[in-house]
Design a protein that fits this description.
mainly beta; five-stranded antiparallel beta sheet; 2 helices; 9% helix
């Protein structure tokens, strides 16, 4: 998700799936958000500027004030991008902890500091989109039936 030229997965934020890679369902991606049923991996070149209770905040300073929040436990990984972060790392950490106080709830639902709510099923079977709803609006989880991309695409870039 970062346009930093990295091509080695060990140097990228990512969440592998649990178990054998052929059985992974790592489709839990939705608008600056990613979730899967395994711990998130943070590349060694990044150091957290704030951390507590499974959460880590990373500040990527460049043309835009990008903050990356990572939550990780033995069976859950979450990565959230905040491309226009205005909060300090400690303020962002406090907001995330306030909105998501219970780790067991975080295994199925994330609430952003702005109040957006995402629901997901990290153990969804292969062929089913991990993401379930956004602000109570149900999402079409049968991604094999989605229309193919056509036309001109807008490019989002988090250049560093």
């Amino acid at each position: 998700m970062l346009a930093d030229g990295e091509t080695d997965i060990t140097r990228c934020f990512h969440i592998p799936g649990k178990g054998h890679w052929r059985r992974w369902n790592t489709t839990g991606v939705y608008r600056n958000f990613a979730v899967a049923n395994a711990p998130a991996v943070v590349p060694e070149q990044y150091k957290a500027t704030a951390a507590e209770d499974g959460w880590q905040i990373f500040c990527i300073q460049a043309n835009i004030p990008l903050a990356i929040a990572v939550y990780t436990s033995d069976d859950l990984g979450i990565i959230v991008l905040f491309p226009d972060a205005k909060e300090t790392p400690m303020e962002l950490l406090a907001a995330l902890k306030e909105k998501n106080p219970e780790p067991e709830v975080l295994h199925r639902k994330f609430m952003g500091p702005d109040g957006d709510v995402l629901e997901y099923e990290p153990e969804a079977p292969k062929g089913t989109w991990v993401m379930q709803s956004h602000n109570s609006d149900m999402l079409d989880r049968d991604y094999d039936a989605w229309p193919q991309i056509s036309g001109d695409l807008t490019v989002s870039s988090f250049s560093r």
